[in-house]
Specification:
about 200 residues; about 40% helix; alpha/beta
Length: about 200
């Protein structure tokens, strides 16, 4: 099954404390969101990916903010089962293709999407979604690029997610609202699970 079809929302998480990784992942999975993108924005991100991969078997954990071939190699070695990038360069595409795991390369324009489609890559991240044109932009791309599907990420909120998910060329959305900083700081995993459960019903 496609990565885009596993859940309506992929939580995009920033993990500051590695010890939060496992309980956070368990709360998201319990709420119905098994696909988890851990961004490579903190010193402990790779270790967090490794812990989730080892201790939360029902989670499909991946690495986000992947920007270089070195990021690709380190993420896969840590246990990432998929990769997500904010943008795309030729070198990064080659590294991702060689990695042997699913990936969502970042795009923001029709030309970028066309270039990736020429390589046979038809499942893409649309970033930054709201700033780059949001729902109207993706709706406009559906006509000339019917074979391409997107995971819009960047500024997507629970209020706007249903409009994205209603588009034929959107498989899921990426969201940061599922793991509020204050909930993580307090270890309020019940709140995270509740937010995940609400998000899991968005494809209604």
């Amino acid at each position: 099954m496609s990565l885009l079809d596993l859940a309506p929302v992929i939580p995009v998480v920033v993990i500051e404390r590695v010890d939060d990784a496992v309980p956070l992942a368990r709360a998201l999975v319990a709420g119905g969101l098994p696909v988890i993108e851990v961004t490579l924005r903190t010193a402990g991100a790779l270790e967090a990916i490794g812990r989730i991969a080892a201790e939360v078997p029902d989670a499909v954990v991946g690495a986000g903010t992947v920007r270089t071939a070195q990021d690709v190699a380190a993420s896969v070695e840590a246990g990432a089962r998929f990769l997500v990038s904010p943008g795309t360069t030729p070198a990064l595409v080659e590294a991702m293709l060689a990695a042997g795991v699913p990936f969502l390369p970042g795009t923001a324009t029709a030309s970028e999407a066309m270039a990736l489609a020429e390589r046979g890559i038809r499942e893409l991240k649309f970033f930054p979604a709201e700033a780059a044109g949001g729902v109207p932009y993706l709706k406009a791309l559906a006509g000339p690029l019917p074979e391409v599907r997107f995971c819009p990420t960047g500024g997507v909120r629970p209020e706007t997610a249903p409009a994205y998910l209603a588009l034929n060329n959107v498989g899921c959305v990426g969201g940061t609202w599922l793991t509020p900083a204050d909930a993580l700081a307090a270890g309020d995993w019940g709140r995270v699970e509740k937010l995940a459960a609400e998000a899991a019903r968005l494809r209604g």
